[in-house]
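re: ur question from yesterday

yeah so i grabbed the chain u mentioned. its 388 aa long if i counted rite. heres the sequnce exactly as i have it in my notes:
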Amino acid sequence: MKNCIRIPRILIPEEGFEKWSVIACDQFTSDRAYWERVKNSVGAEPSTLNFILPEVYLGEEDEVRIKEIHENMYRALEEETVHKLMRGFVLTERTTKSGTRRGIVAAIDLEAYTCSKGEISPIRSSEEVVSSRLPARVRLRRGATLEFPHAMIFYQDKKNRAVKELLAEDLEKLYDFKLMEGGGRIKGYFVPEYLAADIVKDLYSRSEPHFAVADGNHSVAAAKAYWEELKPALTKEEQSYHPARFTLVELVNLYDDAVVFHPIHRLLKEIDTEAFCSFFTSRVKCKRKGNVLYPALPPRAQTVETVDSVVEEFVRINGGKIDYIHGDKELASFANAEDCAGIMLEPIEKDGFFDRLKDGGNFPKKTFSVGESTEKRYYLEGREISYD
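ran it thru and got these structure tokens back, copy pasting raw so excuse formatting
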């Protein structure tokens, strides 16, 4: 069994967690008002908002924004806005309307990760990675001194041994606060190195892949792409310990009761709405309510493949843009705007999740979401990825 989990030294802020922690950059991609509220809420206070490029702003002076992000990271280190914990994990408890979801913040070895179809590895992407979405993320990582990731990695532990073992310990509480914009409440506890090393064995399953990227597939793929770019200039010894070889993630048990799968809907923008609806319904049986279509197909990966095939065919022929929306109400709101239409999908089942990934398989891109949009992982813990 290849050891692909590492025990890192994690960075957290000294104080001000409420403004420090913001939601993943790939959320609310059609809701500029959300990110403006976050910006106004943070103000001039230290925040992970200063280290990310929300996708709603992609294509708007990206290089200028990325340069500012790198400068903000240097400043955070120089001004000691963040402090480094001793080597260890962080046990998280995130309470939302879905329940209390527990995770273990740790580092994974990118040498053990693959996202290409047909490749077998200990850590697999769970969905197809769209190469066109990687360049901006790689540019952001290139030259960055820190990472504040939002990736969530599934492991299989039906008896919940790892978390139960940690809950039985008297762990130091690191933070306990309410997340902004309806994100629920989060608590974090420090897991010292000796305990972390002891529970690692409980995280592995018997067959590969041992782990699957549940959320943040493109974030992990970008980290891998940057590592492959950096690796040739390093000696074998340097490659074995360079910090960019690893990336920080939250490990979550697939069988956690609060892990709930939600669909990611399709939104078509800048189209002739009636032409699209006619095109789609001629190929897929569905109901229509306003500008929202409801395919009469079972909730499985093949349905997403069918929907994407038809949607992408329409855009190739007629133009338009495709966006991926979390939340039924959000889709209905956006779809009923002028020159828009939406496709409402159903959530897939947990059973058979890892089976789909055996032998290098993947789910189609944007098949599922763990939790609703406000339940996605917030940036909080960080790690150094450069010697600069």
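noticed a couple things. The radius of gyration is 21 Å. also The chain has a mean pLDDT of 94.
anyway ttyl
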